Amino acid sequence: MRAIALRHGLKTGLPGLLVLILMGCTVAKPRSDDPWEGFNRKMYAFNDATDKAVIRPIASGYRKITSSNVRRVVSNFYDNIKMPITIANNVLQGDPRRAARNTGRFLVNTTVGFVGLFDPASEMSLPLDETDFGVTLAKWGVPDGPFLVLPLVGSTTVRDFWRLPVDQYFDPLHWYAQEHDFRYNAEYLPSVFYLVTLRARGIEAEGLLEGVYDPYVFYRDAYRQRRLYEIFDGQPPAEYIEQMQGVNDEDVDKLLEEQHQYEKKHPPQHE
């Protein structure tokens, strides 16, 4: 369970990764409905410090000792082995077409792609199309609830939290860990290495955070935007976008002044 939680933290909460997912997207003025903001900011600060002290250095080391081709092959393997999670949620969402397509992708890459090391399925018009139990609940009509940041989990909501315990039942890496009992909990090493590969993907996009006057607000709004697009398959209704963005009568001059003040106190730092 700890490995599952940390994996989702790397996907949704720790620095750099949401930026990678949202490259090319804009993040509007944040919504004001964040009733647990005090707690969330403390957890964000803890996650950020943990990332800088432990997770990012390991991911950076992984990038230094591997080539881009090696990292792509490793990522292909993990993307493929996680596909049962998507297929199960396609079924739960009542979408047999996507379930069949993703099953086909999984079978092609597992066989022709040598256990997923290569991705011939994408060349056969079977692209990667991931989903999870949080999206499933949303499609069932469950509201997202308050925004929430958890230690080593990162950005989530009350609704999306339930993907953590549910999706692990469809996760082959979880099955592997449950069926083995090695010394020093070595059965979790495949999951830990998966976390490293996820974090390594986000390093290149970290420069997009420079100059952001409030990183917590950026990640909060970015998470909501990404989830909205996932729930509506990339085409959210206009009223949902307006709700996410908040009021339309924002004071642009005030926002710019806040940005300038933050930049004076926190000048960009380069490695």
Structural class: mainly alpha
What string, H for helix and E for strand, traces the elements in order?
Answer: HHHHHHHHEEHHHHHH
Distance between the termini: 34 Å
* Unreliable stretches: 1-9, 12-28
Largest sheet: 2 strands, antiparallel
Q: In what order do the strands lie side by side in the largest sheet?
A: 1-2
Overall, the morphology is globular
Q: Over the alpha carbons, how many angstroms does the gyration radius reach?
A: 19 Å
Report helical residue fraction.
Answer: 55-70%
How many DSSP E strands?
2
Q: Roughly what is the average pLDDT, rounded to an integer?
A: 84
Q: How many helices? A: 14
> What proportion of the residues form beta strands (DSSP E)?
under 5%
Sequence-ordered SSE layout with sheet pairings:
Layout: H1 2-12, H2 17-21, H3 37-65, H4 68-81, H5 83-92, H6 96-111, H7 120-123, H8 133-139, E1 147-150, E2 154-157, H9 163-167, H10 172-179, H11 189-202, H12 215-231, H13 238-245, H14 252-265
Antiparallel strand pairs: 1-2
Describe the 3D structure.
With about 270 residues, the protein is mainly alpha-helical. Helices cover about 60% and strands about 5% of the residues. It is built from 14 helices and two strands; from the N terminus they run ααααααααββαααααα. It has helices spanning about 1-10, 15-20, 35-65, 70-80, 85-90, 95-110, 120-125, 135-140, 165, 170-180, 190-200, 215-230, 240-245, 250-265, and strands spanning about 145-150, 155. A two-stranded antiparallel ribbon has the order 1-2. The longest helix is centred in the first third of the chain and has 29 residues, at about 35-65. About 30% of the residues are buried.
